[in-house]
Amino acid sequence: EKILPTGIGHTTSCFLQVEGSQSGEAYLTVEGSDEHLGLSSLTQLGNALCDQKLESSRQIRIHWPVEKCRLLGEEVVIIDSPGIDVDVNLDDWIDRHCLDSDVFVLVSNAESTIMLTEKKFFHKVSERLSNPNLFIIHNRWDCSAGEECQAQVRKQHTERAIDFLSKELNICTKEEAESRIFFISAKEALQTRLQEVKGLKPNISTEDYFTRYLEFQEFEKQLEYCLSSTAVKTKFAAHTARGKDIIGSSGSMMLDIQDIAYSNKQSEENSKKELLDRLDFTERQLELMTYEMKDKICAIVEDVEYKVAKALSDEIRRLSVLVDEFNEPFHPDPLVVNVYKSKLNQHIESGVGSNLKSRLSSDLSQNMEIQQKEMMDRMTALLPPEKQTVSRNILPRREAFEVLYHLNCENLCSDFQEDLSFRFSLGFSSLMKRFLSSTQVKRRPGGSPYSSGGSNIPRNHLPPLTPDTPSYEGIVPPQDDWSVLSKIAIASISSQGTMGGLILGGLLFKTVGWRVLALSGMVYGVVYGYERLTWTNQAKMRLFKKQYVDHAARKLRLIVDMTSANCSHQVQQELSSTFARLCHLVDESTADMKEELKQIDRVIKELEEVCNRSKVLRNEATFLANKLDIFQNSYLDSI
Questions:
Q1: Which residues face 15 on adjacent strands?
Q2: Residue 99 phi, psi (nearest 5)
Q3: At 138, which helix (H) or strand (E)?
Q4: How far apart are CA 228 and CA 636, in angstroms?
Q5: What are the C-alpha distances in Å from 47 to residues 8, 36, 94, 202, 415?
């Protein structure tokens, strides 16, 4: 059917867009409105010869049933422009109506050549579109029928059109340009199609009519082929290229991820190996140092025990000197004596303690400091750098180590009972005691009186460094081989008292005479009187101090081993606590290393999963790229 304005002159006033209608209704709409108008309105709105025509930049959309036009059923949209020489705003036209066009058809008048205005328009189109598909139709070729120069004119039009397409626009080769140039008569083709619809033969007698009609059909075929190939490229080429770009970038990204993950995995595995070596070295060194430090601590403890025992034994031997330095006033009154004993106990305890400190503290402190520094240096070497500063700042003691000597003389001498009664030195009981003591000393080989302090002989079956408590068997009378008769005689004499003295005096009187006896009695009385007169508080104090020294020495000798063991235990506790704190830091460090190993294992596992997953994705990307290449070769490049 005849729908669009046709005829001589300028017939189209605006853009006419013909598209398919799926509803089977033929109607038209004006740009900016959805109102359905009848096709009869087209002769007024789109005809340039009508006074009520639209502006050249407006657009009329003609909806034609797809059943009546096969091309429209393939979603082809045809746009007829009002002519490219009716408006100067060519750029606006191109931007609004031509940017999404797949094929351009230049309808040129065969009675003339391609105009500069037409060339200018397509030059602008070529600037906006990289490679537009352009067909050139020389219409009204029926006017050349019967002309003698028809072939020359056709050749001239063809050459100019080929130069325009291949050289000026540079959108195709010469061979391709030859297939895009047609010489037809649109009027004859329209009349023929109208007659064919009615079932009649066309009544056209112009020369070479059928040749032009066949060329028109060839134009239709080339147009359909170009539209189909362009549609395929339009729909799939861009997506294929975009897909290949995405797949290429994704594959490169997966390859980079795989390389980075593998590199990080190797680095983590190296770190794990180094950490395992360091952990094994730390544990081995800690075990070795534990044995070494235990041996050293045992040696130090034995040395301290020996030194303390030796020093305490020396202080016991010079206990009388320390007691003589006590200058508190003395009185034999029991209350005063008790106070005096309490103060003397305190004096002895502080004096012995201070003497032990002055003799041992410096060496012990220096030795302890050396041992602790050696422990800290060796153990700190096993710690990581960030914890070495912590160990140096936290572990050292702020004050020097000092051993505490717990003597507690108050309890030791609590059972001391002084005897301040007067005893004549030449009395019978005193002489008998001296006799028995001297005999005891003579009969004990190498023995010495207990008041001299005793020897410091090591005990049997004990380590050589352990100080021994001296033997005090001399205190107990020896079980000698005196005859029973002598013992009975001495006991009898000592038990008879005055009677024995009278008998002894009678024997002496008969033996030496009364003069010698009187003189001896006078001397004996003088000595007794002298001692009795000199029995003052000072003498009592000296006797008290002598008795106290003997008692305190015996008691202190009993605690030599306990005191030395207590001091050595303090040293052992100090060194062991220092070593335990250092071991705790090392244990924390090894625990941190084990936790770090677990974290590294998790990271290695994750990186391995990333490597495997990225490899799979890269293979999938390669597979998809191959599929797209096959699709492009099969459906795009072959067009």
A1: 59
A2: -70, -30
A3: strand 133-139
A4: 11
A5: 12, 18, 22, 27, 146
pTM of the model: 0.50
The distance from CA 39 to its chain's CA centroid, rounded to whole angstroms, is 79
Q: With b meaning 16 or more CB within 10 Å and e meaning fewer, what string describes 184-211?
A: bbbebbebbeeeeeeeeebebeeebbee
> Which pLDDT does position 88 carry in this prediction?
62
Mean pLDDT by 10 residues, the chain (639 residues): 71 83 86 83 73 74 86 83 68 71 86 84 79 88 84 91 91 89 90 85 82 90 84 74 89 91 93 92 90 90 87 84 77 77 80 80 80 83 77 57 69 70 61 60 42 36 36 38 43 50 65 69 73 71 79 81 84 86 87 92 94 92 91 76
Compute CA distances 267 → 113, 270, 411, 591, 600, whole Å: 75, 5, 71, 22, 10
Q: Which amino acid is at 521?
A: G
Residue 581: both structure tokens together: 């704190």
How many residues does this entry show for the chain?
639
- Report the C-alpha gap between 418 and 336 in whole angstroms: 13
Tokens of 483: 């005859």
Helix/strand/coil for 61: strand
Amino acid at 110: A
Q: CA dist 599 to 267, 279, 489, Å?
A: 14, 15, 97
What is the end-to-end Cα distance of the chain in Å, rounded?
Answer: 33
Q: Which two tokens stand for residue 358?
A: 């002055």
CA 15 to each of CA 114, 447, 613: distance values in angstroms, whole numbers, following the listed order: 21, 146, 56
H helix count then E strand count, the chain: 19, 7
Provide the residue type at 306 as one letter.
Answer: Y
Q: Which of 296, 365, 383, 285 shows the shortest CA–CA distance to 582?
A: 383
Which two three-digit tokens encode residue 525?
Answer: 């009385």
Q: With beta carbons less than 8 A apart as the criterion, state whether 405 and 556 touch.
A: no
Name residue 252's beta-bridge partners.
none
